[in-house]
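Instructor's aside before we start: the two examples that follow are unrelated to each other. I chose them only because their records fit on one page, so don't look for a connection. First example below.
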Amino acid sequence: MGDFFSVEKCFKEVVSKLCPKKFFCTPPIIYIHLLAKNEGGYTNVEVKAFTEAGLGAGGRFVKLIDSKAVINKELLLKEQFCELKGA
């Protein structure tokens, strides 16, 4: 993540296009599939930053999907994937 505010702005744009604001509308659950980075993986600070950016974009919950996971619609709906957890 280079710039937190630009990532959060991008997430807000996507959320506003996919889930327009309506009266008594439940905020969405945001799933973020992180790309493979390096052998060490993502640091706790980066995981926390992506989580905060998703929440700042209007998400009710943010779930970070491990980059090694192959994901499809069925697995996503059943929540059968490896989730990254921050500290």
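Example two begins here.
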Amino acid sequence: MKQSASTVSLSEKMNASTPEMTLEQVLTTYKPLLLKVINSYCQAPEDRDDLMQEISVQVWKSLHRYDGRVKLSTWLYRVALNVAISHHRKQKKETTESLTQVIEAPPPASENPQVAQLHRFINQLDEFNKAIILLYLDDLSHEEISKILGISKSNVGTRIGRIKEKLKQAFTQHKTQD
């Protein structure tokens, strides 16, 4: 009996080594991955909750399109980043709050000051470079990043090098101002 795309289970789409998972299990298992994306694009806790909900809905709506050609985590990163970027753009249009205020939002209390400064510098990057460095800091390979963002591996490497240089310059400039 041939199944329609809507009745194919998630486990049938994933490779054989991945256990069968419900949508809830997928979201629970990959919550840390999703939170990294969310925390990079939202400063306020309410916005983070809204974005998590938007990502969850989009994963649910798009699940029938997951074909198993890439790892589930890679696919989820792509969905989460696309939703986060759209959410960020929508918020920029809806709010009159300046970008400076968002960037200068206080870091979490438990955060190391240098890590907090790194987050502020990363938040100053454009959306695409922010996505690249977020994935890089999450130890994804250049190949995985290229699949998630739809660019070549060499482009990923070039962009990471440029972003690192930009962040290094920002830290150097910040230290000379102190």
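The chain is about 70% helix and 0% strand.
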